[in-house]
Design goal:
The protein is 65% helix and 0% strand. By secondary structure, it is an all-alpha fold.
Length: 193
């Protein structure tokens, strides 16, 4: 799936923020070092991880943050629709595919937000293992379990970095992330550097 919105230039802050999310989701370390499949599905899953981080940061802010969050979500779904069509999916099949993508987004966003809210590295690692790395009960390997834990730690550290950024800064495109390949556990949520 080609994420065509990434190549478009626009002054719209929501689309610029969405492009930033796509850029963060495409960091080579996820695919090279952390076993995320370098496939359409793997890239889609990493975009969902980063959308969850953004929406978690903006969820209790003002109306402008809610408006921008909705516009970023709209840009995401517009990009997915466009990408499906560019892949040759017919007009009659696109709505079914979009429904599946919407269901995937909804389920993952709930699981990730719950883990981020509760500071639950184990719950996040389980959700990442299941959704991003395809881990199934009884088929876990130590390397994949470690990769899921590293991505969960990345999410918690990135959550903390986003929390330290002002909402206005995030809306303007500031999207500070942790190093994806750093396996260190996150700082406790009350401590921010």
């Amino acid at each position: 799936m080609k994420f065509s919105l990434f190549s478009r230039r626009t002054a719209d802050p929501a689309e610029a923020l969405y492009r930033e999310i796509v850029a963060r989701a495409r960091q080579p370390a996820f695919y090279r070092d952390l076993a995320v499949p370098d496939t359409t599905e793997g890239r889609f899953e990493m975009i969902l991880v980063h959308l969850a981080l953004l929406f978690h940061r903006l969820k209790s802010e003002d109306r402008e943050c809610a408006r921008v969050a909705q516009a970023v979500l709209d840009a995401f779904f517009s990009d997915m629709d466009r990408s499906l069509r560019e892949m040759g999916i017919g007009d009659l099949s696109v709505p079914k595919k979009m429904k599946k993508l919407g269901d995937a987004y909804h389920g993952r966003s709930l699981a990730y937000d719950r883990g981020l809210e509760a500071d639950d590295a184990e719950g996040l690692a389980a959700a990442i293992g299941r959704n991003v790395l395809g881990l199934e009960a009884g088929r876990e390997t130590p390397a994949l379990v470690a990769a899921a834990g590293t991505i969960a730690a990345y999410m918690l550290r990135t959550r903390d970095r986003l929390a330290a950024e002002s909402a206005a800064g995030v809306i303007a495109g500031a999207f500070p992330t942790a190093d994806p390949a750093d396996p260190l556990p996150p700082e406790p949520q009350g401590v921010r550097s």
